[in-house]
């Protein structure tokens, strides 16, 4: 249900605003900004409340918000003409604001659900078995990849053969049904795992990290964070007996925000988390930006759907590679190998920028398009009515865009065919890189699970989500500043540079953790690893 909604909400907003991307852009900006600002607060709320309460509350809020949004969208689709005439269209604008606000609440609740289930519950259920934890992480990611394929297909078919209103009703009904099923499943897991009922409210001096047994001399990086938290908790205890003033209540969210980011910075896996966040600063994914570029190169929707399916398959291959590499080389080295594989595949994207068919033109300013519209008052381009002529001429018109040139067209007036070498290399690199990408993502996810103490799991993962959204927001800003196709090649080069910087950060983390054993690809004995590993290395197996 969540995947259906994430796919459909953008389509619904485009339909509502007359095939304009304005509402979709506003929604994306609101969602990214909200998680960026509230990620730490959401994580802190997860830490301070019982696991069952957090899971149930976030699940109910998420699904209820989606259901409510679906109902409002159905009303708008039914009575859009009447709403447009009331109060000079302000009532319809209010409905748009209401939809975006409720959809944003659903996304925040989804973030809380992901933190508590995928970053906390799964660690407790796995116990001290790291292999079981790795397998569970990989299984969840495979399910996620499959739903990424099936959910858009289901909603797309319903909207194609039905209508957007029917799509809204279907998603609302599905989320109502899935909420009940998920609620029961969570309750059963909670009952079968008694340790989920025990949650540390504050950091004790004897507390060790969930999946690692280390000597006290080896825990210096973690002790820094631990002592800070102990000091904060101890200092707050006398104050809790007093009445909290209005100013203190107002300042509390800001203090939590600051403390969350400070605690994130002090984590031994900080560089690994930053490395993962830097991978979000890229146009080399199957989002609306890359899809739009593909359309300018003559690829049709059917071809793109096949490419998206291929990317999901390679993503699943990445989860399989993660579990195999972890058993053979250890967790930290798996991240190194995955990062190297991803970067090697992205070299194809760099090569595609300079191949025939690439629209990159360094003589055209990347900011020419936006500067013309903002400062020279040029009108925005409008979508012309379809004509029986080939817009994007390629070597395979029937396969790529489904249109053919008219028989009586003038050869001198028809556009030259666009070579497919550049776009083919681009998508070959993007699809192949998914193997390394998802293996690396699972590596960092498990590092955070294993190396963050239980009482800080929520807030640290909340800040990690904020970092991911921050870099994702920057990549959208980069595209807004340079939207013309001639600049896409530069965006590709910048994206690959950020991916390289992310993996350099991870390499630095691995070097600090493993030292001279960095390139010794074998699974060390757990007892030997716990006795001889350098400070900060908490996950060598």
UniProtKB/TrEMBL annotation:
Compartment(s): Basolateral cell membrane; Membrane
Topological type in the membrane: Multi-pass membrane protein
Source superkingdom: Eukaryota
InterPro entries: Ferroportin-1, MFS_trans_sf
Protein keywords: Cell membrane, Ion transport, Iron, Membrane, Metal-binding, Transmembrane, Transmembrane helix, Transport
Protein name: Solute carrier family 40 member
Any GO MF annotation of the entry: metal ion binding
Coiled-coil spans in chain: none
TM segment ranges: 20-46, 58-79, 85-109, 269-295, 301-324, 336-355, 418-437, 458-481, 487-507
PANTHER family per the UniProt record, alphabetical: SOLUTE CARRIER FAMILY 40 MEMBER, SOLUTE CARRIER FAMILY 40 MEMBER 1
GO CC entries: basolateral plasma membrane
tRNA processing in keyword set: no
Summary of the function given for this chain in its UniProt record: May be involved in iron transport and iron homeostasis.
Membership in a protein family: Belongs to the ferroportin (FP) (TC 2.A.100) family. SLC40A subfamily.
């Amino acid at each position: 249900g969540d995947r259906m909604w994430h796919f459909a909400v953008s389509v619904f907003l485009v339909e509502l605003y007359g095939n304009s991307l304005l509402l979709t852009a506003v929604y994306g900006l609101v969602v990214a900004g909200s998680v960026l600002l509230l990620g730490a607060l959401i994580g802190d709320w997860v830490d301070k409340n019982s696991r069952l309460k957090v899971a149930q509350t976030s699940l109910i809020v998420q699904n209820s918000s989606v259901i409510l949004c679906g109902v409002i969208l159905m009303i708008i689709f039914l009575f859009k003409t009447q709403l447009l005439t009331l109060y000079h269209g302000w009532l319809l604008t209010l409905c748009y604001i209401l939809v975006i606000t409720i959809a944003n609440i659903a996304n925040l609740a989804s973030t809380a659900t992901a933190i508590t289930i995928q970053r906390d519950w799964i660690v407790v259920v796995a116990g001290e078995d790291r292999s079981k934890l790795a397998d569970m992480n990989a299984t969840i990611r495979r399910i996620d990849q499959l739903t990424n394929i099936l959910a858009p297909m289901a909603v797309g078919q319903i909207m194609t053969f039905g209508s957007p209103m029917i799509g809204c009703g279907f998603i609302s009904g599905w989320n109502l049904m899935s909420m009940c099923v998920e609620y029961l499943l969570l309750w059963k897991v909670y009952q079968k795992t008694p340790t989920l009922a025990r949650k540390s409210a504050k950091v004790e001096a004897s507390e060790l990290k969930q999946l690692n047994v280390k000597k006290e001399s080896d825990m210096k990086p973690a002790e820094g964070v631990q002592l800070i938290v102990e000091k904060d908790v101890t200092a707050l205890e006398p104050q809790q007996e007093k009445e909290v003033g209005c100013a203190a209540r107002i300042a509390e969210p800001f203090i939590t925000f600051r403390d969350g980011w400070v605690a994130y910075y002090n984590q031994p896996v900080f560089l690994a988390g930053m490395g993962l966040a830097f991978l979000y600063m890229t146009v080399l994914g199957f989002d609306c930006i890359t899809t739009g570029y593909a359309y300018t190169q003559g690829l049709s929707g059917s071809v793109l759907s096949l490419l998206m399916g291929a990317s999901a398959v390679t993503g699943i291959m990445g989860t399989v590679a993660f579990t195999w590499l972890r058993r053979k080389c250890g967790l930290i080295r798996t991240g190194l190998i995955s990062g190297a594989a991803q970067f090697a595949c992205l070299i194809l994207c760099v090569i595609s920028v300079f191949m025939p068919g690439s629209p990159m033109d360094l003589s055209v300013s990347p900011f020419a398009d936006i500067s013309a519209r903002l400062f020279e008052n040029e009108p925005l381009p409008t979508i012309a009515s379809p004509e029986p002529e080939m817009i994007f001429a390629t070597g395979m018109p029937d396969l790529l865009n489904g249109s053919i040139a008219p028989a009586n067209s003038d050869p001198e007036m028809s556009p030259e065919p666009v070579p497919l070498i550049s776009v083919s290399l681009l998508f070959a690199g993007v699809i192949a890189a998914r193997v390394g990408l998802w293996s690396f993502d699972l590596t960092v996810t498990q590092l955070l699970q294993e190396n963050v103490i239980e009482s800080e799991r929520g807030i640290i993962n909340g800040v990690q989500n904020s970092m991911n959204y921050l870099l994702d927001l920057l990549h959208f800003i980069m595209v807004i500043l340079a939207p013309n196709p001639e600049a896409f090649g530069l965006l590709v080069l910048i994206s690959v540079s950020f991916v390289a910087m992310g993996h350099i950060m991870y390499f630095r983390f691995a070097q600090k953790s493993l030292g001279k054993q960095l390139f010794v690809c074998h699974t060390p004995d757990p007892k030997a690893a716990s006795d001889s590993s350098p400070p900060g290395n908490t996950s060598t197996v």
